[in-house]
Amino acid sequence: MEDQTRKVRIAISGGGLAGLTLLNGLLKYPHLSVEIFESATNCSERGAAVSLGINAQNALHELGPVLEEAVSLAGAIPYNSSRAMIGLRPNAGSIVIELKGDGSEKGVHRAALLSELLKPIPQIMTHTNKKLIRVQECNDGVRLFFEDGTKEVFDGLIGADGIHGYCREYILGAEHAALKPHFAGFWDCRSLVPIQKAKEVLGEKYFNDGLQHAWVGHGSYLMHDVLDNGETIQCVSSVETDENWSLGEWKRDFDAEGLKEAFSKWTDSPILEGMIEVFTGSNSDLRAYPQWEHSVHAPTYTKRWVCVIGDAAHAMTPWQGSGAGVALEDAMILDTHLQLIKDPHQIKSAFQAYDQVRRPRTQKPVDSSKTTGRIFCGRGPGVGLEPEELRKSLCSRWDFIYALDMKQHKRDALDAFADLNTQSVVD
Ligand SMILES: Cc1cc2nc3c(=O)[nH]c(=O)nc-3n(C[C@H](O)[C@H](O)[C@H](O)COP(=O)(O)OP(=O)(O)OC[C@H]3O[C@@H](n4cnc5c(N)ncnc54)[C@H](O)[C@@H]3O)c2cc1C
């Protein structure tokens, strides 16, 4: 006979931003027993910054104070505004977009945030060096097979295992056209630099509090923003390319000469030389990373007792700074559903309801982000490097991401869950 009092057992595969955020949320619920399995030796990764827009802040708020606190303990800095300019003459310095924030958008060092997200989680719930390689349905749920030869059984599995993970394959099948991410046609190179050093080279004017500065140029883009309670800046250079990167080629070594070459069309730029000096002065270990996206959208994010969230579901280019934000929204909606689970059989409806409300929401920014990248690289069709056209094409591109009414979204998710539960009782 089934034990009616036992906890519902949930496994999360992947200890990145999505997985750790979700686990922190689920810690609130005594009826759930949750464990996380991460393939790497530890759950914190090296990495640059992520910006968390108002939608991400709202999702964190709904998830609870522990999550909001983690962001602030990680040294998040409010972006008071974000300014993009033309980076080369004849229109150098012309402002093409100026987003005035209300302080709700924040920039945070990714590794610092992951480390804060780990702190509230009891060690017994986290397992590292646990690469998931296979999943099998069994009478009492799903059996997980790990690379080290071990197995575990859970009632449900949430794949937060990013673009390199396994869970998307389990859901879609190994031959599905939407399985693999595609190279989006951009690579970028990032460097973290002490703010003092950047000020010495570029001058104080680019470091007014909380301002993100970007420069649009010929087929490429430069940007910097402030992190770590104002101690560090993140420099980003991004380039649109016709060259292809094959899947599995995750980075290329890079140097100052390569950077100069990539920006060689920026003749007569008042900012390029300084930015290259800042970039390379503090970091001799530069790498170029390709940008991947799920340009072929998944027709579903779930298969019975398994679902995917975050980049495993909808990887997007970083041009609208939204991949992490929508991953946090995913976590919030699953938290909303799993809170209501009374027995393991309801997991399937919870995952279906999650899929219903989240798929349309999360696939739109995948497409929008790539177009934004082309515009920021001065290659928007009919836009080019014309300041007025750039202004028009950029000014409202973030509205659909930030304007989500999170409380209404939660209500929609709850309605979908209630409908699916009623149906499954009738069935
Ligand atoms: C350069 C860059 C800049 C970005 N900037 C922003 C930004 O400013 N704002 C924003 O919102 N988003 C940004 N993003 C996007 C954001 O970083 C991602 O959307 C977000 O990190 C996704 O989190 P995730 O947890 O889904 O995936 P990941 O962070 O990729 O985590 C997946 C985890 O799963 C583990 N894993 C993989 N396979 C397995 C397996 N088989 N078994 C177990 N574990 C496994 C991995 O080791 C990893 O720890 C940026 C992305 C990039 C690349």
From TrEMBL:
Protein name listed in UniProt: FAD/NAD(P)-binding domain-containing protein
GO process annotations (BP): secondary metabolite biosynthetic process
UniProt cross-references to SUPFAM superfamilies, sorted A to Z: FAD/NAD(P)-binding domain
UniProt key word Flavoprotein: yes
Originating organism: Mollisia scopiformis (Conifer needle endophyte fungus)
Single GO MF annotation: FAD binding
Xref: PANTHER family: FAD-BINDING DOMAIN-CONTAINING PROTEIN-RELATED (PTHR46720:SF3), HYDROXYLASE, PUTATIVE (AFU_ORTHOLOGUE AFUA_3G01460)-RELATED (PTHR46720)
Chain ranges of the FAD-binding domain: 248-368
Keywords tagged on the record: FAD, Flavoprotein, Oxidoreductase
InterPro entries per record: FAD-bd (IPR002938), FAD/NAD-bd_sf (IPR036188), FAD_monoxygenase (IPR051104)
Phylogenetic placement of the source organism: Eukaryota, Fungi, Dikarya, Ascomycota, Pezizomycotina
